[in-house]
Amino acid sequence: MQKFRFLALAVIAGLCFMATSHKAEAQVSISIGPPPVCPYGYFSVPPYACAPYGYYGPEWFSGGIFIGAGPWFHGPAHFHGYVDNHYHPDHGYHGPMPARGEAPRHGWNGHPENFHGNEARDGHGHVVHEEHGGH
C-alpha cells in the first residue's frame, strides 16, 4: 500500500511539473553574409562558387548586375531564367572558373553572346518546367 501511495504522489508531482512547464520556442538565426562577388554570377548551391561566363542567361542580369541566386536572390517573386547546366561542375564541367572579385571581361554587359540555355530555374536553384523551349 505504501508503494502505491508513493507511486501516486510521484505521478501527481510529475503531472504538476508538466502542467507548469512552458515550451521554449527555438529561435534560429542564420547569417550567411554578403553574396559572393563574381563577374558572371555564382552557382545557387553551396559553396556558391563563381559561375563561368555563359552559365546564366541574360534574364539573370539587370544593367549588367547579377540579380542573385540561392539565399541572395533579389529578383521578382515568380522569376525563372535559363542556365546552361553544361557549365556546372555537377554536370562534368572542368573548364575555367572566374575567381571571386575578378573583373568581368572587357565589354561585358550582362548578355552572353550565343547563349543557349538548356534548363529553366527559379532564383533559388529549383528547376522550373516550362511549356516553351529554352533560349
Keywords, separated by commas or semicolons:
about 140 residues, little secondary structure, single chain, 1 helix, 4 strands, two-stranded antiparallel ribbon, globular, two-stranded antiparallel sheet
Summarize the structure.
The protein has one helix spanning 2-20, and strands at 61-62, 65-66, 81-83, 119-121. The protein has 135 residues and is low in regular secondary structure.
Secondary structure elements and pairings:
Layout (H helix, E strand, L loop, with lengths): L1 H19 L40 E2 L2 E2 L14 E3 L35 E3 L14
Antiparallel strand pairs: 1-2, 3-4
Structure description:
The chain has one helix spanning 2-20; strands at residues 61-62, 65-66, 81-83, 119-121. With 135 residues, the chain is largely without helices or strands. The protein has one domain.
Number of strands: 4
Low-confidence segments, given as residue ranges, are: none
| Total tally of structural domains | 1
Biggest sheet architecture: 2 strands, antiparallel
Radius of gyration: 26 Å
Cα end-to-end separation:
83 Å
Strand content: 5-15%
What spatial form do the alpha-carbon principal axes imply? Answer: globular
What string gives the helices and strands in order? HEEEE
Helix content: 10-25%
Decide which structural class fits the backbone.
little secondary structure
How many helices? The count is 1
As laid out across the biggest beta sheet, the strand order is 1-2
- What is the residue-mean pLDDT, rounded to a whole number? 82
